[in-house]
Design a protein that fits this description.
Blueprint lengths: L1 H31 L18 H14 L7 E5 L9 E9 L8 H4 L3 E9 L10 E2 L13
Antiparallel strand pairs: 1-2, 1-4, 2-3
Helix pairs in contact: 1-2
């Protein structure tokens, strides 16, 4: 039973990581071509960005598809927010045991990813912003 539950836990964690990576990549792509939805009704933790940035963050959370209340995002412009420069999108999501058997091993760990892309179109005025990181973590991996 332990082996079976371990396989299930690994599968769920791996699926969440793939969702995190793919959704972050898709969101970064939308940021560099300046194409975002009009929906700005997602949960953001610890920030109040401008309307364009809020819509981008909500789009990224939607594309990732995990629990938006637990998901944290950061947008950074390493040089400048201009065409030809780069945008960095980072995300983190807590890793939790679904069965409860592996809580001591997984509790407190996070899954992270970052995507750096060149800005192709500058039609939106996105701001650098970072949500409050998942409890007891930081954004040191980002950048």
């Amino acid at each position: 039973m332990l082996l079976l539950f371990g396989i299930a836990e690994y599968g769920i964690a791996f699926n969440n990581l793939n969702s995190l990576r793919q959704g972050t990549r898709e969101g970064a792509r939308q940021a560099v071509v300046a194409t975002v939805d009009t929906d700005s009704s997602c949960t953001l933790t610890g920030i109040s960005p401008n309307t364009e940035t809020r819509r981008l963050l909500c789009l990224i959370k939607d594309r990732i598809g995990l629990d938006p209340a637990k998901l944290r995002l950061k947008i950074e412009f390493p040089t400048a927010n201009e065409e030809g420069e780069s945008v960095l999108v980072c995300s983190q999501y807590p890793l939790n045991s679904v069965t409860g058997l592996f809580s001591s091993l997984l509790g407190g760990r996070i899954q992270t990813t970052e995507v750096l892309m060149r800005i192709e179109s500058k039609d939106e005025d996105f701001q650098e912003t970072a949500e409050t990181p998942v409890a007891s973590n930081n954004w040191s991996f980002c950048g």
